[in-house]
Amino acid sequence: MNNKATLELGNKPVGKLLMQYSLPAIIAMTASSLYNMVDSIFIGQGVGPMAISGLALTFPFMNLGAAFGAGVGVGASTCISVKLGQKDYNTAQRVLGNTVTLNLIIGLAFSIVSLLFLDPILYFFGASEQTLPYAKDYMVIVLLGNVFSHMYFGMNAVLRASGKPRQAMYTTIFTVVLNTILDPIFIYPLNMGIQGAAYATILSQMLALVWQMRIFSNKNELLHLKRGIYGLKKAIVKNILAIGLSPFSMNVCACIVVIFINKGLLMYSGDLAVGAYGIANKVCFIFVMVNMGLTQGMQPIAGYNYGAQKLDRLMRVLSLATIAGTVITTIGFLVAELIPGPCARLFTTDQQLIDLSVNGLRIMMAAFMLVGSQMVITNFFQSIGKAKISMFLSLSRQMLFLFPMLLILPTFMGVDGVWWSMPISDTIAEIVAVVMMYTYMKKFKKQHNLSMANEKH
């Protein structure tokens, strides 16, 4: 990142900046969600409906892996954005080096522990004798390559924070295109089944990581890989993990919640209901990832201007991102309610699975239009380093509202109670987020007025 790119975060019109940073991130996150969908589509059409259910059982594992990746990647990218805003380039450089080391250590540790206890973990996640072989075949390959996946996601977050949103976008698009090419080759002619999809995913991410490392090896860039920055520094690691605690907690909670969703669906309806949730979740995931791209584009702008104490620009980016986020999730709501059938048929030709998916999708996304602003508000607090508030908002939807609903509603409503737990918790979480934002908005405005008064004097 050159000095001009750094300074424009504090000078360029906020609307243009949000477009500049968000569009590449949105394209990248949409591409990322599509390549998750590609796996599911080829597995569902090429292996069968029970394989879809097996794949759905891997969601908690994916969420858990993402928790560690987000904890390091988001924490590091926020630290870098704030340090660049403060013009502390030396510390920003050290954050980059510590990010590489942390990703390597945590990625390897996660793989080793997970592989040692794979069968009992999958049974705990809701596997049955029918679905375990599919889930295990997929996860063994994914876990063997997890350190590369972990590093890939972490480096992409740092790319965005260091003023290279386009490169981050190109990296993700590369993995999608390559995965889409390799999936049918490995699954059909090579007859590798669900394992083929896993190999395609890991190979795509490994090659993308090579390109990322090449970008960060350029000595002409303000932030680049060099000797002396990889040794873990207590203050830097503490800061990364403190800020990353919110997305880490959110993903861990998502893991726990998905386990209870899978177990509830298995108990009240059977293996195919787990597969229906897998399909519904993939459709929902596209719009969640688009919104995540928006919030990732917001992050460096909010982080820089918070560090530079330009509070009017800070509030402007929050307002624009909230409007855009609401539009995105409203489109998702309309898709789920108006065309759930065609969405389900992308993944399977099994009519029973299609019917279960249509019902689940309509209920699951009944309040989805509220999710956009809740995500923006949560990530806004994260972007300015308010880790505790962000973590509370992240946890409130998952643990305070959704988890109790999953325990209570199915006892009265059966399988529909599992599905209805999600929109009800979304609604309550949105109310809490708006109240929290309103409270802190007054504080920000007071701070801004004091700042303006001091400038006049």
Automatic annotation (TrEMBL):
Biological process according to GO: response to antibiotic
Alphabetically ordered keywords of this record: Antibiotic resistance, Cell membrane, Membrane, Transmembrane, Transmembrane helix, Transport
Signal peptide positions (record): none
Pfam families linked to this entry: MatE
Chief place of localization: membrane
Topology relative to the membrane: Multi-pass membrane protein
InterPro entries tied to this protein: MATE_fam, MATE_MepA-like, MATE_MepA_subfamily, MdtK-like
Keyword hit for Ribosomal protein: no
GO molecular function, a single term: xenobiotic transmembrane transporter activity
Record's subcellular location: Cell membrane
TM regions (residue ranges): 21-38, 50-74, 95-118, 138-159, 171-190, 196-216, 236-261, 273-294, 314-336, 356-377, 389-412, 418-440
A GO CC term attached to the entry: plasma membrane
Recorded family membership: Belongs to the multi antimicrobial extrusion (MATE) (TC 2.A.66.1) family. MepA subfamily.
Listed PANTHER family: MULTIDRUG EXPORT PROTEIN MEPA (PTHR43823:SF3), SPORULATION PROTEIN YKVU (PTHR43823)
Protein name: Multidrug export protein MepA
Taxonomic source organism: Prevotella pectinovora
